[in-house]
Amino acid sequence: MTKLDDLLAYEVVEGLTEGHFTAEEYVISILKRIEEVEPKVHSFITLDTEGALSSAKIIDKKIREKEDIGQLAGVTVGIKDNISTQGIRTTCASKILENYVPTYDAAVIRNLKENGAILLGKLNLDEFGMGSTTEYSRYHPTHNPWNLDYVPGGSSGGSGAAVAAGECTVALGSDTGGSIRCPSSFCSVVGLKPTYGRVSRSGLISYANSLEQIGPICRSVKDLVMILNIISGKDAMDNTSMPSSPITVPNKSNKLNVAVIKELITGSDQEVAKSVFSATEKFQEIGFSCEEVSIKNLHYALPSYYTLASAEASSNLARYDNIRYGFDYPIGEYKWDTYFSNVRENFGEEVKRRILIGSYVLSSGYYGKYYLKARRLRSLLRLELLTLFKKYDLLIGPTMPILPFKFGEKIDDPIKMYLVDVNTVIANLAGIPAISLPIGFSNGLPIGLQIMAAPFEEQKLIDASYELEKVIHIQRRPNSI
Amino acid sequence: MSMVMIGLEIHAQITALNSKLFCSCRGNYRDLRPNSNICEICCGLPGSLPIINQKAIEYSTMTSIALGCKVPDKIMFYRKNYFYPDLPKNFQITQYNVYGISSIGIEGKYELDDAKQIRISRIQLEEDPGRIVYSEGGMNVRNTALIDYNRAGVALIEIVTEPDFTGPKEVRQFLNKLSLTLEHLGVCDTLLEGSVRCDVNVSMNGGNKVEIKNINSFKEVEKAINYEITRQSSVYNRNLNIELETRHWDDKKKITFKARSKEEEHDYRYFPEPDIPVIVLGSDFVSNLKQRMPELPNQRFERFILKYKLSEHTSNILINDKKLADFFESTLKLHFSPTEIANILVTDFKSLIEDDTESTDYLKNLKVKPEHIAELAKLIEGNKISRITAKDILVKIFESGKLPSEVVNSSNSYKIADEKTIMDAVQSVFDTEKSAVEDAKKNREAINFLLGKVMKFTNGRADPKIAMRLINSKLSAPEKQ
Amino acid sequence: MISKEDLEHLAQISRINLTENELEKFPKQLDKTIEYIDILEELASDDSVNLDLQELTFEELRMDEISMSDDKQLNKNITEDGFLRGPKMK
User: Fold this and answer.
1) Is B52 on the interface with C (CB under 8 A)?
2) Are the CB atoms for A76 and A121 separated by under 8 Å?
3) Which of A186, A305, B36, C65 is the most exposed, fewest CB within 10 Å of its CB?
């Protein structure tokens, strides 16, 4: 039998229901695993051992008393530390929120709890989700479980690494420009950015509201569907959320039309491109049609993304003035605006850069030049993609144009860092769903395939991913730890 | 005389709402313990999202219709970015008119009594900030500000006029009319403390525009304008330039003073609020609302004249005090005698309540109810009491809250219709007022004096018609020897 | 080009103090970023493109009802009277 800590989510629920082990036993196995690998990986910012154990005991009691335990009973979930958890501090990996303990649960957390999931703690990220490596975390960087000298991707790097390292059954991340898919690709796990509006953002600490979604990061497509179905749906606390139908897996499989985005292949490293081609061949082998397409507005996608994301961020992060929550700072010493500037000096460099750029592009005189143009590109890109989706079910390409890289490689050059997001921002701008699926390794470093579908066509994404997962056998647990 | 141009920017809270604009906290924040009417949304906790109040859109649309504005099919919200400790998110969610998107109302016209039209540039729906109380501070407080967020997020309607006013009188007329309209619509109780605020811009002789902020009641507006006109005239007469500037109104000293320029240097960096989708009102929205919208003061005025056959003068008095007009119509429901009841209300009744009309619910607190007035009118019409007695009875009802019939019974105030009793009174008056009788014989005008004496003699209870007849016949009767 | 004055202005409207190190290296870094997003200028300004991604109808909006949570939303710097202490205003 597989080791307890290596079980997939649906296996955990099955095992519990059938009485093979107790929730407490399972949680203890996970906590042991954390104890073992965390000193190397550093996925967590806050670990809630007690909370997890007591939740497990409650589930075991319910099982003994034959009560309903929920669809995710016993599944341990790591939460990206920008998703609000009542009573558990939520830092966004920022010094500004070092002591912030939310008074309410995010909608997704409520959903998870109601379904018997066990919260393990809060996972590392780049400060406020701004970054692609976790190097911008104000606490510590997370290491890639496949090779500890390499970055795990970001910003949900803690989530990607924790799932890959077996420190939790599944994790939640958030994706503003690729923050779920990038670490999923770099850590060889499955990660989905849902259609904009499918999952409530209530309680997700905003970086760029119009672009981001919460999504699951898992070790299998089936696990991912379990989580997605639980967190999806219209929520009264988010005016941008929308109703959706649940996903089924396995589904009556249709033969889908797939198109490879040419620009994403030509812009990638050779090993990455090669791996994507072999995945394409697999698709053909299982009877999918594959063609090549070009996206004409792609060139403007990344500048448009950075304009919009920075603009929204500069406004969203204005609230961190340390008055209502935050760290200790002598309140009587300075006049309010000096006080504000002083306490906000505590943001990290990347956050500051984006706030300044955001203030710049929104300033009078520049609004038309940057912000409006970016909005317009966004609409054009969405239209172009929707037109393509009339002909093709799915658009594919590499999730990341490059392999995972070493710490320090890009941190001093913001533009270099921004460029790694070029493939993933498309889905955020267009509001469409996109998944990253592990498809292979090069020199022991993971490669992910990105599949995109039309709005609310997650079922197609899942069908294709599930079929591909069946034929590509990927090593699940890293050897290095 | 110099040319004056005045424009207004009015903020009226939608006091009619149960809840705030973007959350379910109480709309009525008054008299609550500081920071007890707050939630994660209105105090801007990380991850909370604004959830717009349907009714707020309805009320602001009604206001727009009443002020002759166009209401667009689609509306949007914008963020106005500026830092201030009373602003929990350090941005305000408001509306903005740019790039073809408009606020809830635009291009309105509002007519003053002399048919002069004031153009309304726009009407916006937005959120109120919290309140700052400045403490002078003891040892522990040391010059800190005290903040209360109970008001934060209360719905405000902002009404902006073109600079169409030529003097303070027009402004006063406009504000009175506006208050009345808001009251009729049920949107805003303008008598509540802080429910209406006004910024004014004044320019003279084509000179620079001076903005005056912080005028916290409509009553102060006229004073501020007068002060500003005097100030600007004296600057002008000294051949100096009137500076383009923002000034504040000092409530206590009754002067305007220059704001520190740096504080007013704002670049609001407006951009569309990403957490609130475009709201589609639809083409029928306005026409449907017009159907079920409360009657406006003008419409009511016309109706009073047409349906109740009241004079313009009487109608005007009633309309200008909505609560009195409502009282009038409630009374009519009990006893339909418009002229008599209107007469009681606009004369005796009104003179008795004159001092109290400043408080918001003055009619509710009265002991006199429509039942009283209806019965009083019946007694007058049934010739049971005289109009003069009616006034005394009204005073007694005001004090005791007893019904008119009770008062009349207990004080023996019924009208005297018995000719014998009245004749006795006439005889005594004739006995004591000999010279007046002689006058009356020569000059019929002097009869009224005698009638007055008879009425006084009977404590106003004599039927004046009978008394008059008896006086007349006694005057013309041959004198007894 | 972002001058030191521009940077200071941006920092002022964003209420952020910059460290010596940031003042040193930000102008160049921000320049590069702005240069990068400058290619947006190539896009034509065509107002006919609908920029809105999402719409809500009036009927979908929240009803005007009060629902108060008992949670203490603020727990820091609260005076005995319930006021939140903030920095001095003058």
Assistant:
1) yes
2) no
3) C65
Side-chain half-sphere CA neighbours of B419 within 13 A: 7
**Structure-token match 């967190």, residue found:** A231
CATH topology of domain B419-476: Arc Repressor Mutant, subunit A (1.10.10)
Specify the pLDDT at position A225.
98
d(CA A53, CA A31) in angstroms, rounded, equals 9
- Which chain A residue has its CA at the smallest distance from B144's CA? A332
| DSSP classification of residue A319 | G
For residue B68, the distance in angstroms to the closest alpha carbon of chain C comes to 22
Nearest CA in chain B to C84: B147
Is the CB of A321 inside 8 Å of chain C's CB atoms?
yes
- One DSSP character per residue, A53-118 reads HHHHHHHHHHHHTT----TTTT-EEEEETTB-BTTB---TT-STTTT---SS--HHHHHHHHTT-E
Spatial separation of the C-alpha atoms in residues A250 and A467, rounded to whole Å: 9
Does residue C12 fall inside a structural domain? Answer: yes
- Among A436, A438, A402, A408, smallest CA distance to A420 is for A402
Q: Token pair 């940031």 is at which residue?
A: C22
Q: Give the whole-angstrom CA distance, residue B409 versus residue B323.
A: 30
Please report, for chain B, the start and end positions of each structural domain, with discontinuous segments joined by +.
4-287, 295-411, 419-476
**Looking at beta carbons, which residues of chain A come within 8 Å of C37?**
303-304, 306-307, 361, 370, 374
Q: Which domain holds residue C38?
A: 1-42
| CA separation for the pair A173, A217 (Å, rounded) | 7
Contact A223, A8 (CB under 8 A): yes
Residues of A known to be catalytic: 80, 155, 179
Tell me how far apart the alpha carbons of residues A417 and A412 are, in angstroms, rounded to a whole number. 8
Q: What's the Rg (C-alpha) of chain A?
A: 21
More confident residue, A272 or B191: A272
Residue-wise pLDDT for B325-334, tens only, equals 888 888 888 8
DSSP structure string for B121-172: EEEEEEE---EEEE----TTTTT-EEEE-TTTT-EEEEEEE-S-B-SHHHHH
Q: In b/e form, how buried is each residue of A249-275, taking b as 16+ CB within 10 angstroms?
A: beeeeeebebbbbebbbebbeebbbeb
Tokens of B53: 């109040």
How many structural domains compose chain A?
A: 1
Q: Chains meeting C at 3+ CB pairs closer than 8 A?
A: A, B
Q: Is the ipTM value over 0.90, yes or no?
A: yes
Alpha carbons B67 and B120: distance in angstroms, whole number: 7
B203 pLDDT tier (thresholds 50, 70, 90): confident
